[in-house]
Structure formats: C-alpha cells, structure tokens
C-alpha cells in the first residue's frame, strides 16, 4: 500500500515541477536562479525531514555521497537546461520528452541488472520511441505552419 502512496505522491510532485517550470518561464525567470532557489529550498526541507523523521541523524555511508553528488549535478543541469529549452517550444512537448527519458534507465536496467524483458516492456520502449518521433513530426508541422504564416504576412 505504501508503494502506491509513494508512486502517486511522486507523480503529483513531478507534475507540479512541470507546472512551476511553465509559470517561471511565463514570468521571464532566469532558469539558473529558479533552480538555485529550488535546490536551496530542497536542502532546507530535506534537513527538516531528517530532523523530524530520522532523529537528526545526518550520518550516511560514504557511498551515499558518491551517488548523491553526480545525481545532484545531473538533476540541476537537467532542470536548468529544461527550463531554458521550453522557451523554444511548447511545455507539453518538452515535458513529454523529459518523461520519455525514462526509457533510458529502463533499457539500462535490462542491460546492467539483467531484468527480465517481457513483451510489455519491449512494447513500452518501442512506443516511447514512436512517441518521440511523432513529437518531432508535430514540431516540424508547427514550424512549417509558422513559416507559412510569416511568408503570408510579409507579402501583405
């Protein structure tokens, strides 16, 4: 039961990240400032969590630092690049592509951890690839329409 609760809470929180990214973009916020403040607040709430639920035990094995450092670096780079990139496209397309990136760890899990590959998993990865292709075609179509409108306006 707790697994479902965590999954739903994760889904909701990740959805809010996309919503907040769009709000930040529409208000002209600098991506680096947004993510610097976001990670500052994350640090504060993480510390509060440890104090309240872990009896202020901040000790962790050294391997946690070895994992957390590249995790944090990748996360902040991804956030800044994502927020910078949505200025050049639709949030819906950008957010779908970010979520489709889940196919990379799925394939990695199959290769590195020898997870069993079922027809369902193969279908999901294949559909993710098809989705990216269709999003790319949609973007091309939008750009062609935009260019056509621009040419019509120039001739008028």
General shape: globular
Give the strand tally: 0
Order of helices and strands: HHHHHH
Largest sheet properties: none
Radius of gyration: 20 Å
Strand content: under 5%
Q: Count up the helices.
A: 6
Please give the share of residues in helix.
over 70%
* Number of structural units classed as domains: 2
Q: Give the integer mean of the pLDDT values.
A: 84
Which spans have pLDDT < 50 for at least 5 consecutive residues?
none
* Termini gap: 63 Å
Helix vs. strand class: mainly alpha
Layout: helices, strands, pairs:
Layout: H1 2-26, H2 31-53, H3 62-85, H4 91-100, H5 103-112, H6 119-155
Helix pairs in contact: 2-3, 4-6
Give an overview in words.
There is one protein chain. With 156 residues, the protein is mostly helical. The chain folds into two domains: 11-89, no CATH class; 102-156, no CATH class. 83% of the residues lie in helices and 0% in strands. It contains six helices and no strands. The protein has helices at residues 2-26, 31-53, 62-85, 91-100, 103-112, 119-155. α2 (31-53) packs antiparallel against α3 and α4 packs antiparallel against α6. The radius of gyration is 20 Å and the shape is globular. The mean pLDDT is 84.
């Amino acid at each position: 039961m707790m697994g479902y609760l965590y999954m739903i809470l994760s889904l909701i929180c990740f959805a809010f990240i996309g919503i907040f990214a769009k709000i930040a973009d529409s208000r002209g916020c600098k991506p680096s400032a947004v993510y610097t403040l976001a990670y500052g607040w994350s640090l504060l709430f993480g510390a509060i969590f440890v104090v309240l639920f872990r009896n202020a035990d901040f000790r962790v094995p050294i391997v946690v630092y070895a994992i957390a450092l590249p995790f944090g670096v990748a996360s902040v780079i991804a956030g800044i690049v994502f927020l910078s990139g949505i200025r050049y496209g639709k949030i819906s397309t950008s957010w779908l592509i970010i979520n489709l990136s889940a196919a990379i760890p799925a394939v990695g899990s199959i290769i590195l951890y020898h997870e069993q590959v079922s027809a369902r998993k193969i279908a999901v990865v294949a559909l993710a690839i098809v989705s990216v292709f269709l999003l790319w075609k949609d973007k091309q179509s939008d750009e062609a329409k935009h260019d056509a409108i621009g040419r019509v306006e120039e001739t008028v």
